[in-house]
């Protein structure tokens, strides 16, 4: 089972790129279903990532990044390089997808995917707005194409 999860805040321009990709992939799957593929829009809810990924053999996460790189740069990173243990706190809002991967592996053990890839797209703008910038939209299309080819491998 392949699970794809888009993360981000679609009210903050390019921060919504993961949500944009997830919505497009869901539409593509509606037109050409794959029973062993699930796509979710987790928004900013890291805890949702943990529960949606449970039971999958492979997980792909798509989100925006803000590293100072050229806007639209695509980073394809094995999750093991990004996983973080969550520090104790009082708000689940601070529980991000990198924490969800760590916690999911601890809680669900073999029922959590070991194969996790993260696609990060460098944001040009994180200000208020509902549309992606041109550079980020073009990169999102490339990620949709790449993940679409992965989806095609699943019958």
Please provide a written account of the structure.
With 155 residues, the protein is an alpha/beta fold. It has a single domain (2-152), classed as Rossmann fold, CATH 3.40.50.1450. The chain contains four helices and five strands, in the order E-H-E-H-E-E-H-E-H. Strands 2-1-3-5-4 form a five-stranded mixed sheet, with helices on both faces. Helix 1 (17-31) packs across helix 4 and helix 2 packs parallel to helix 3. The protein starts with a strand and ends with a helix. The model has no long low-confidence stretch (mean pLDDT 91).
What is shown here, in short?
With 155 residues, this protein is α/β, with parallel strands linked by helices.
Strand content of the residues, in percent? 15-25%
CATH homologous superfamily placement: HybD-like
Q: Mean pLDDT, as a whole number? A: 91
Helix content: 25-40%
Which helices and strands occur, and which strands form pairs?
Layout lengths: L1 E6 L9 H15 L5 E7 L2 H8 L4 E8 L8 E5 L18 H12 L6 E8 L11 H19 L3
Parallel strand pairs: 1-2, 1-3, 3-5
Antiparallel strand pairs: 4-5
Helix pairs in contact: 1-4, 2-3
Task: List the defining traits of the structure above.
155 residues; alpha/beta; Rossmann fold; five-stranded mixed sheet
